[in-house]
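call fold target=Peptidase C11
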Amino acid sequence: MPKSRWSPFVAPSLMAAATAASVACAAPDAISPVAPLQAAQGLDDVIEAKGGKASWSLLGIIGHDNDLSGSAPRYRQAAQSLAQINGLNSALVLDTPGQEGVEVMGFNGQVVASRDKEVNTGGAEFVGTFLTWSAKNFPSDARLLSMADHGGGIVRGIMVDDSSGHAGIRIPDFAAVLDKQRVNVVAFDACLMQMVEVAYELRGGADTIIAAESVTYAGAWPYEAIGRALAQGGNPEQASYRVVDAIGPQVYRSTVSAVRTAGARNAAGALDQFAKVAIDKMRGNPRFKEEIAGAIARGQSYKFSDDQRFNLYAGYRDMISTARSLQKVSDPDIAGAAKEVERAAKAMVIRSWRDEGHYPDSNGVSFYAPVDGTVDLGYAKNSALAKDTQWDEFLVALNSRGNFGNPLQKDKYPTAFPRFIFPGK
């Protein structure tokens, strides 16, 4: 068994209610099929919910219209398990491969509706449609929205719908939807999504984010245990704390954490101040560039493959471990600014778990910090944190070669997402 460890960065006033439950693998025919609704437009004609208002709703979009479709039985079984939990409303939408459309699972866990036409779950518009529909049919005081599919962090986004032209959702577009239809918790059941840049984008649309800094596995999250953690009630931070405790023991070769999106503003400010100090110091003494790059390189990285299509992810690093490494730079001003980055990152983290054997220095939130001589052009242009701070200017200065080198490059592999299936699948 891999070693595991609970992170010390937790809210001491919160009580953990650790619940571990494996998602059993159901046969594909375990769900009774229903006739497709031919006149479907969006989700408007789905049968209305029969239950009353609950304290929490668990809403999930499983966008596995791609190479992750083999995990579908696990999510169908999850829908059945969730439906048995008192005090919880739940609805999962599963995007099936090809042009067959989607299945809507709720109420008693059965498929209550389906679509015989392609639905693009790789588009932000569908998220808005689903949230509008679920607010009507699954009323609750608080909502957790789970996005289950491929993930690529702030640069590559979330969800891949192969039948809709390999469409995916950019984080700024996802944030725009949540700004209008706020949820309390966003749970990214996907790789590499727990980043300060993602939290900064979503700070207006969600209170907390539950996700992995690292790669993760399709079908690995225990949704019944997650649902039971939500059914205990509480505010978003309390619920998120319990959900991480429910997921953590089930995570294999991965990480999971919960962060406060409100803390992303201070974290961005700390990164901005560090960037200003570091740029000034590198201009005054070129040797600081080498020192800083070496310190960042020693931070916990989420590189998982030598395949060049995945080089981007080598630049995703744990923010706390990297800030600690930067505090060893010889210049006291740089070290002091790095200390503030660490402090701000710690303040974001509610609860964190890591597989000690694979990610020994993961602490709950990552950031984009490449040192390989390239900086993603899309990050600099589209990331709200990059726009609002000098972090991207610092990355360009750090990665430039010579006085006139420009490391900004367009992503050569924008659809290159990790593919990991739950062990034993």
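return ok
The chain is about 35% helix and 20% strand. The first strand starts at residue 4 and ends at 6.
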